[in-house]
Amino acid sequence: MAKASFHKNQKVFVKPVGTWAVVEKVIPQWVKGLDEPLKIHYDVGLGREFAATELTADKTNGPTDSIGDLESWRVIREKNRWKESEQATDHPHPGTFPKVVTDEKDWGGWRVPSAEYDRDPLKIEFQARIICAAPQLMKLAKVLSRCVAQDPDDLPNDIVQLAKQGTSLLRTIYDTPNSAAEKPQAAE
Fold it and tell me: Where is the composition biased (Basic and acidic residues) (predicted)?
């Protein structure tokens, strides 16, 4: 039995083609004697029908507090094109530098110029590990804040203060400044 994952006129990313499209038609495959369709395919106007596993929903209008897609942050090693391994024996990983990728396809993320890495490689390696741990630290702060909010009276004051700091940090991450509020008002 299958349920529709996408609806008509929904914007989706078509993985096999590598492009965005709009669902033009939801096509259920019915089998005699069943109340629900066996399979559901989607026509997105690209010449063939696609299964739900081949499509990804557009998340731009979705909630910004989802940590699920941050779970794949990791450090990969990129080859240093400016220095060979023999020239950088003082580096923690000679011949490479860290790159934090934030996408399942090793796209996007953070990296540094080679000159900055050469100046202090241990500091850059440490920063890469901090960035990769950030989603887990956010989740930890969120869970701690939620637990303390449920029953703050039965917990030690130190834990309550940590939860307040976690809530404050999460607020600085998620709250986007209101551009209208930041503009100075003209004197009347």
Answer: 82-93
Task: Read off the tokens for 103.
Answer: 């996408």
Q: How far apart are CA 31 and CA 43, in angstroms?
A: 20
Residue 125: domain span:
68-174
How many domains, in total, are found in the chain? Answer: 2
Burial class (CB in 10 A: 0-12, 13-18, 19+), 26: middle
176's tokens: 């986007």
pLDDT in tens, the chain (188 residues): 578 888 888 889 999 988 888 999 999 998 888 888 888 999 998 889 999 999 998 876 544 445 555 667 888 887 776 666 666 666 677 777 788 887 777 777 787 877 787 788 888 889 888 888 888 888 888 888 888 888 888 889 999 899 999 888 888 877 765 544 444 544 54
Are residue 77 and residue 38 in the same domain, yes or no?
no
Strand, helix or coil for residue 29: strand
Contact 124, 91 (CB under 8 A): no
Query: Is residue 138 located within the same domain as residue 111?
Result: yes
Q: What is the largest CA-CA distance in the chain?
A: 74
Is residue 3 included in any domain, yes or no?
no
Establish if 4 belongs to a structural domain.
no
